[in-house]
Amino acid sequence: MAAPLWFGSRCAPVLGTFVSSSRHSQACLEQCGRRFFSRKQRPKAIVAPVGALKANVQYPEPIQEGEIKYQEEYPWHEKTSPISQQLYHSEEPPPSHGVDIGLPVPRFPGAKKFRQLKRKLTNENRASSELERAARLRTLKVPLDQVKEDWQASFGHEQLKDVATHYNIWKDLFEGAHFHPVVVTNVYYDCDDDHAIPVYRGNVVTPTEASRPPVVQYESDENSLWTLILTNPDGHLRDNEAEYLHWFVGNIPGSDISKGETVCEYFPPFPPQGTGYHRFVFILFKQEGPLDYSMERRPAPCHSLRRRTFHTFEFYRDRQDQLTPAGLNFFQCQWDQSVRDTFRSVLNMPEPIFEYDFPKPFIAPQLMIPHRKPIQYLDKYLPKEPVLKRF
């Protein structure tokens, strides 16, 4: 039986089945009231002239009682929605946004050259019988130090820049300007004679572990001069745009920080209770020559938070012709018991304690028939005992 040449035929009551048009009788055609065409005689689809294609503008669904009421005169479109206007058209970025202020990045082979080198090395390792025997007997040892050095020399600075972007370091310290940390800056906090806490690009270090000045290591020429600062962009108690300077050493000859000029003595971290994690950022600047830091000098010991107020971007902007950022490292720190002693004994001030006011949960009104709507009104039947939050 041939397939029908039409869609949705009404001939089923007449014949009881679907047949081709060539087998229909005249009575069937009259009762059906439909013309049949062959494939060659089938008319083309008629398309109305709709003009140029436009964006599919959709309007929001009807507003239910208890929901946030949007402005009905605005369609739900990314250019006309009031919420999208706030997201996409909020503020213009500062002039420094996206500007590279660092040292030149060392050139690395392109993607094609890198794949060729990788394929060549892989073929050599597969052809080595010694590596195969060591891997089979589980005596193969991978030199992790060599792997780390190769990573730092190839992709380390690019990935560290991406990590700093994720933690909003460029936005909060340099107003959007960035640099590639081409100088590897290793920082360690000595706990005792046998153990040390490394600063590993955003790891957590407690205030007790960071109570003493760290050990900073980097490779440089003996005739070069460097500046090292440690700042906290999250801990200022009065100004959200300001920072607290925890350490400042300038005119460092080579990599020997002990011979540098201590502009501001080291002060341990003191994140107040209830403020969460704070970022503590080490920035290493390369100097063009000896610098006079008499204007930035703090008295020793400096236990005044007002004197330790600092702005990294303003400091760099005033000396951008003499300094170039080259190294970066940072860690996160949260309140512990030693912070209380720092406020009371060192800063001679009462310890501030912050509490977060949790907003009241939104409970939608009860509907008789909540068709395709979440049943949120059941939340009002939950127990009303306070939920303990740990900061």
TrEMBL record:
Q: Which UniProt keywords apply?
A: Coiled coil, Mitochondrion, Ribonucleoprotein, Ribosomal protein, Transit peptide
Q: Where is it mostly found? A: mitochondrion
Entry's InterPro entries? PEBP, PEBP-like_sf, PEBP_euk
Subcellular localization is given as:
Mitochondrion
Ribosomal protein among the record's keywords?
yes
A GO CC term assigned to this protein in UniProt: mitochondrial large ribosomal subunit
Q: According to its UniProt record, which protein family does this protein belong to?
A: Belongs to the phosphatidylethanolamine-binding protein family. Mitochondrion-specific ribosomal protein mL38 subfamily.
Full protein name = Large ribosomal subunit protein mL38
Which organism does this record belong to? Branchiostoma belcheri (Amphioxus)
